[in-house]
Amino acid sequence: MRKPFVAGNWKMNTDSHTSVELAERIASESMDVSGQVTLGVCPPFVYLQAVAKALSASSVSIGAQDVYYEPKGAFTGEISTSMLKDIGCVYCLCGHSERRHVIGETDELINKKTTAAIAGGLLPILCVGELLAEREASQTDGIVTRQLENGLAGLSAEKVSAVTIAYEPVWAIGTGLTATPQQAQEVHDFIRKLLGQMYDDRVAGGIRILYGGSVKPDNAEELMGQLDIDGLLVGGASLKADDFLAIIQAAI
Ligand code: 13P
């Protein structure tokens, strides 16, 4: 009932040439599976338009890696929801762990961005996940609860249906350490139950929860085999067309 969703987060990688080259290969080689899986890529802001053009004949959507919550004005360096909509963006990451832990974004800011994204017609992918020390101190559930309750604060059941959740344990991002499928499933199950308490079981059952953190072609299938893993948010491996395409195949 939840269609698989595979998204690539290119982070601060590619250039004007390689971003288009990568998008063109993903577009042409994912055609035959387009009905079975939702696909998206999140290139750097400056390449969004060129990538959108390269993907225009495909079913692969573009997403932004971040968004600002104000509609316009004196916010130097920021990008609004309407700008992203204007160039064809469908998705937008909110609260990626690198924005939380490198840039210093708070739950409150992430909530404003998530809320603004929905109001502006974008589909936010709200990222949550614990640090290694937090996992070791058995705080995973508490951290994920805080990030979800604060990140989704004020959103009605109707609005929250626009949201995809991505569980990305920080210790598994870019480290080659993947959560085992069982570890990931445990947290995904916890997240779905929490969404059930915050909203209801019907809403919780409809929200896709992606796993992210060192997803590779050789672990994608087993991760996707878990009951509450509805898709994958892929970093490093989404920069290699062959790997990303293999992950897509593993997800269907
Ligand atoms: P890696 O797949 O490189 O670990 O990155 C995961 C991620 O942060 C996706 O948003």
Properties at a glance:
single chain, 252 residues, eight-stranded parallel beta barrel, globular
Number of helices: 12
- Global mean pLDDT: 97
In terms of DSSP E residues, the strand content is: 15-25%
Strand count: 8
* Bound small molecules, deduplicated: 1,3-dihydroxyacetonephosphate
Order of helices and strands: EHEHEHEHHEHHHEHHEHEH
Determine the fraction of residues in helical runs and give it as a percent range.
Answer: 40-55%
Oligomer description: single chain
Structural class: alpha/beta
Shape: globular
With strands numbered from the N-terminus, the spatial order across the biggest sheet is 1-2-3-4-5-6-7-8
Distance between the terminal alpha carbons, to the nearest Å? 13 Å
Q: Can you tell me the residue ranges where pLDDT is under 50 for at least 5 consecutive residues?
A: none
The largest sheet, given as strand count, sense and whether it forms a barrel, is:
8 strands, parallel, barrel
As a whole number of angstroms, the C-alpha radius of gyration is: 17 Å
